[in-house]
Structures are given as C-alpha cells and as structure tokens.
UniProtKB/TrEMBL annotation:
It comes from the Bacteria. This is M81 family metallopeptidase. Transmembrane segments: none annotated. The lineage of its organism: Bacteria, Bacillati, Actinomycetota, Actinomycetes, Micromonosporales. Residues 4-289 form the Microcystin LR degradation protein MlrC N-terminal domain. It holds the Pfam family MlrC_C. Residues 298-473 form the Microcystin LR degradation protein MlrC C-terminal domain. It comes from Luedemannella helvata. InterPro entries: MlrC, MlrC_C, MlrC_N.
Amino acid sequence: MTHRVGVLGLWHETNTYASHQASLADFADFELLSGAAVLEANQGTGSVIGGFADATGYDLVPVFSAGAWPCGPADAETMSTLLEREHAALRAAGPLDAVLVNLHGAMVADGHADAEVAVLDVVRDAAGPVPVAAVLDLHANPSPDLVAGTDVLISYDTYPHVDMRERGAEAAGLLGEILRGRQLRTAVGKLPLLVCPLAQATDAEPMRALQERATRRARAAGLARVCIPAGFAYSDVTRAGVSVLAIHDAGQEAAARDVIAETLDDITANAEAFMVARDDAATAVARALASPARPIVLADIADNIGGGSPGDGTTLLAELLRQGARDAVVTIADPQVARLAADLGPGAEIEAHVGGKTDDRHGAPVRVRGRVRTVTDGRYRTSGTWMTGREFSMGTTAVLAVDGVSLVVTEKPTPPFHAEQLSSVGIDARRAKVIVAKGAIAWRAAYGDIAAEIIEVATPGVCPIDIGTLPREHTPMAFSPTAFPR
C-alpha cells in the first residue's frame, strides 16, 4: 500500500513593529494556492515544498500553501480566511496517512500570538492523529506547543537561506522513516536571547562553531538531528529567542534533553559574540566613497525588507546625495513615484518626494529631480540560491537617474535576495561603486560574490541593530529542555 502524504504550508515572518499588516492580498501576491497548483508552482524550485516534491516512495497529495513577504501581523479576518481555506483543502484531499508542513516559526496574527500552532490544530482536526513533519525558518521562534504538535520539526541550517529545498527533502525522508515504523520525536529548549540577524550568519562566528559542536554532540548521543533556530527578535512575543531542536528516537528523551542543555550552555557562554555595533549613515557613506574598492555594498540594516520593514527608508539615499556619490544604486519602495514615472515614460524629467511614507521610523521623504531611465513590470525569475527558479514581482518598477544615483523605485517592497532584481531593470551591479541593499545577511545570496567591500550601517527602522531600542510588552521566556513522548 502506498501512503498518501499531504503537502501544505502557511509561511510568514512577522515583524510586530511593522505598520503594514499582512492582508489576504499580500498572500495572493506571493503564494495562495490549493490542490494541484501547490506542487505545480513549487516542483523543481528551491523552496521547502520543492524539497517535499523530491520525495519518493509515497503518494504526495498537494493540499494548500500560503505565504507572504515579511511585514506586520496578519489581520484577524485574513488569518481566519487562511485557516478556513486550509481546513477545506484538507477535507477535500481525503484521508491522509501523514502530512508535510512548510512553516516559518515566527508568524503572528491578530488573535494568534503563536499562529503556527493554529495551523497545526487545523491539521489535527481535519486529518486526525497522523504523523506530521514540518520545516521552520532559521529565524523561527518555536514554542513547546508548536513542537508538541509535530513528530519531526527541523529548521534551515543556513543564513542566507540557501538550503530550503534540502530541508524539505530531509523532512520528507524522516517522515518516510516514521511511516516505515521508526518512532521519531522532537525536543526543544530555548534561551531568551534576542539576537540581531547580523550575528546569525551561519558561515561566520558564533553560529558556525555553535552548529558544528551541536552536530557533534547529537551524533555522539545517537540522535537523528539537531538544529539551532537563532530566532526572530523583531517579534514581540514570549517565545522569541534562540532555540535548540533535537530529533530523536523513542526512548532517547534523556539524551535529547542532555544535548539541548549542553548546546544552550554553549550558546550562553558565547552570548557576547552575538553583540554587534556598526557606523551611522554619514560615517558609513564617507567610508564607502573614500575607499578605492568597487562595488561596495552598504547594508541598510534597519530597513531590512526580509525582516518586515517597508523598504522605503531614505537615510542612505539622502546621505549619498548629500555627499555627492557617483555610480550608486539605491532601491526604494514607493508605489506613487513608480506609477508617476511609468505615466511620464522613459526619457522624461521627473521631480518627486521619494520614500519615507509608510511611517516615521525610516527617515523623511527625499526630494529628487532627475530623468526616467527605464520602466518595467518588475517581474523576474531567479537563478540564484534563494528559492531557485521561482518568479517574483516588484510591481511597476522605474529606474531614475538622480545626480550620481541610479534610483530603482518599486511598487512593492521586495527583498534583495536575487541579482535579477537589478539586472532585470538593466543595471549591472558589478559596474556600480555603491549598492545599497535593504537587508542584513540574506542579500549576500545576490551580491556576496561580487562585493569588494561590505559596510553594514546602523540605520533607523523596525529592524534595528540594537534590539534594546525596541519597546517590548512581552518578556521572552526560557524553555527548559523538553521532550514530548507520544
């Protein structure tokens, strides 16, 4: 008998400080699919569900998938609709023997402080007590309730996230072992350590060595797997912090707790290495312009679109113009100006106030005068390492020539995860003196191989380097190493 395994997902990295709430339209823009379309959209791509689709040995049943770019919490109506659609799709799928789930782990919605638990509750209600294997982002804030709702729960190993497909395939493989009789479980422990994403790069310290030592402990103890979700500090929830997940066989609960405890102690001993500080915009731009290197990437940390910021931060644009930068490339999300440029057309003169319109956290609008160089529909398909093969849309996109700056104005905030974001609008990033990337680490998947120098900048916004500048209503809590025997 071939097992019927459902494939579903609900993915959103929620910045609770962001002013824009996730709507159903945001999910429709990124991914909102049911039935066969779930696998059709992801087959052969670098997504988690693309990894699920690589599974062999059972009958995959596409059920439901919803995802949106990071921003503020989903509103109550949107979350209710998503859960209703998930439930209906599971019912329509018929009896399932197991379920594969693509989650983020830091999703928050109005009425659901732990949104992924609600997703799993729907799975249990519709599919019954079947085995569940799920994949989380490295920036997940997994709670004990989330872990208890799964049999296998793993997270990405990389940041930038270049192993999503591999983790999907791994989860599918572990679920296959469960269906063949292996009794796998997941345990969790957590520290209330809030870490800026700058300190979470997995090819650098402290994360690289922490992961290596944790893997050695797990192997020595005979565990199936260990993961270190480094957490998402821009979410004001009690479950925020650095976690350790240990996947183990039934009867290994004590060994799993020991590995988690030792790894948490290791993280605590290296907590100081997670602390970072960087130059302000004026200092960083002066450094970049004085350097002979090119291209130099100025990382606009607090306007990190991949962390939920609006992408319309103006601090670095204003400073580059003030200091007379030449051959600089800056991307700003501003639908009004993008549409104005499209109406005027290539070659037209344009005068407008750009950016700084979403809230008062990311700088004031900057008055610019220049020429419309190009206008596109903002669509591109990526061959890069983040969701390889997927198509993305920035909406109407215009390139404005403003003094020495090539200003890329997009209708929609789109994280700088792909080199095609610039090449699709006619910009050769290799020829630039300065590239402003609105992100912390993940932009390296697009430009890390060409950057002659990297300057990370302490800009203002909802993804600040100094986590302590954010007001918190909920104090992060530690979770003692906990195993969940079934």
